Each structure stands twice: as C-alpha cells, then as structure tokens.
C-alpha cells in the first residue's frame, strides 16, 4: 500500500487499536469537548445523525443516550474498532455500519447532521476531500456538519506536540491540519458558513471544533 492509499487505524501506525479508548482518555481532554459536541449536534432536534469514522463509538453512544427522538448511525472502515463499539453499554441504540468515509453507503439526503471527530487527520488529502463531499451529499437540505479535529497550532508548544502526532499518524494526512487548511477544505466541499466553535490545547496539539451548513 502506498502512502497515499494508507488506511490509518484508530491509534495510529504504531499503537494497538485495543488501547484506543485509554489513549484518548489520557491525551485528548474528551470530557470537555465530547459533551459539548453532543449538545451542539443535537441542537435543533435532528431526526437522523451520522457519526462518520465513529471508531470505538464513544460519541455515537453518547449521542444516542442524549434526550430526544433522534436515530444515530455510526460508520467506520475498521471491523476491529467497530467490534469494540458493539461491546459497549448503550451500543444497542446505535446502528453500526462498516464502510469507507469516501464512499458512504447511504442515499443522498439521509441525515440531518453529520459529525466527525478525529477522523479527518487520518485521511490523505484526496480522501479527505472525497469524505467531505460525501458528508455533504448525505446531508438533507438545511443539515449541518460538525467537525472536531486538529487545526493550526495555537502556539509553539502545540506545534511541537502535533509533530509527535504526525510521527504516529503520518505526515501527508496531517499536513492540511498543521497548515490550518481544514475550514477552507470544508468550504471547498460545498458547505456554507464554516465557523470555528472554539479550540482546545491537548497532548497532541490544538484541537478545534468546526461547524458548517450543508
Ligand atoms: C482516531 S479514530 C476516531 C474515532 C472516533 N471518531 C472518536 O472520536 O474517538 C479514527 C477512526 O477513523 C477510522 N478511519 C480511518 N480511515 C477511514 C476511512 N477511510 N473510512 C472510514 N473510517 C476510517 C479508523 O478506523 C478510526 O476508527
């Protein structure tokens, strides 16, 4: 497999997927941003929510457990991490689908929200663009995209820490994030009103929440 075709699994190129939840709990301050993301995604009472690159399912399960009558679908390309998601308490409230972000097995206009956390920096630039285009395709008119992923470093320390993540996850797939190009790529995929909802210092660099209208 060439560098541009590479599939980067949840815990990067060198760490086992089985340790993903523990790695994230230690490094990513998820107690701060996941609950906030759940609130923002569910604001406006969507009916159908897609978690793109759902991984071990933490966010999808939290979305499904939140008050409301929404349905949650989680899609990921790795059967091992989907197995970890299916083993969790509350997983029965989510529909789990194995599939690739750049070829989503859903009809046009199937969802009111697409949320994707920590996926895009795993994707090579052409795959990232295709995944964003697919996210737009599967959104209904008036739907919304929520992205939580790494962005341009807020300070030199964040830049140094992100260089460590680039070793683990790969350089080509993370370069657009280091350069702060993600909002522009979202707009290029046809989304309107791309908006930063805040950023957070983490062990692996500056992490940002973005929102855009489909
Ligand atoms: C760092 S994990 C993030 C998981 C989850 N969204 C979270 O917030 O914890 C990245 C996930 O993206 C998945 N992934 C990577 N490339 C993918 C692709 N091309 N299509 C679908 N999933 C992909 C991996 O299997 C992994 O589960």
What key phrases describe this protein's structure?
seven-stranded mixed beta sheet, alpha/beta, binds S-adenosylmethionine, 214 residues, 8 helices, single chain, 7 strands, 26% strand
Short structural summary:
With 214 residues, this protein is α/β, with parallel strands linked by helices.
Structural features, described:
The protein has 214 residues and is of the alpha/beta class. Helices cover 36% and strands 26% of the residues. The protein contains eight helices and seven strands; from the N terminus they run ααβαβαββαβαααββ. It has helices at residues 20-27, 30-42, 58-65, 79-86, 125-138, 156-169, 175-178, 182-188; strands at 48-52, 71-76, 94-98, 111-117, 139-150, 192-202, 205-213. It has a seven-stranded mixed beta sheet. The longest helix has 14 residues, at 125-138. It is globular and about 45 Å long. The N and C termini lie far apart (33 Å). The model has no long low-confidence stretch (mean pLDDT 96). The chain binds S-adenosylmethionine. S-adenosylmethionine (SAM) binds at residues 7-10, 24, 53-55, 58-59, 76-78, 81, 100-101, 117-119, 122-123, 127.
């Amino acid at each position: 497999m060439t560098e541009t075709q590479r599939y980067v699994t949840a815990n990067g190129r060198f760490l086992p997927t089985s340790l993903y939840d523990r790695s994230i709990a230690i490094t990513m301050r998820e107690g701060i941003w996941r609950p906030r993301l759940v609130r923002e995604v569910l604001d406006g009472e969507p009916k159908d929510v897609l978690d793109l690159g759902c991984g071990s399912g933490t966010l999808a399960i939290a979305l499904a457990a939140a008050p409301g009558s929404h349905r949650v679908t989680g899609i990921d390309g790795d059967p091992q991490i989907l197995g970890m998601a299916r083993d969790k308490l509350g997983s029965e409230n989510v529909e789990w689908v194995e599939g690739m972000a750049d070829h989503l097995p859903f009809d046009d206009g199937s969802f009111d929200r697409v949320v994707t956390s920590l996926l895009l920096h795993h994707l090579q630039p052409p795959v990232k663009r295709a995944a964003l285009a697919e996210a737009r395709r599967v959104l209904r008119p008036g739907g919304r995209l929520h992205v939580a992923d790494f962005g341009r470093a807020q300070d030199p320390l964040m830049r140094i820490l992100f260089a460590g993540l680039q070793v683990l996850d790969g350089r080509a797939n993370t370069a657009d994030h280091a350069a702060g190009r993600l909002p522009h790529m979202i707009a290029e995929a046809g989304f309107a009103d791309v908006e930063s909802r805040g950023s957070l210092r983490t062990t692996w660099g500056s992490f940002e929440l973005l929102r855009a209208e489909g």
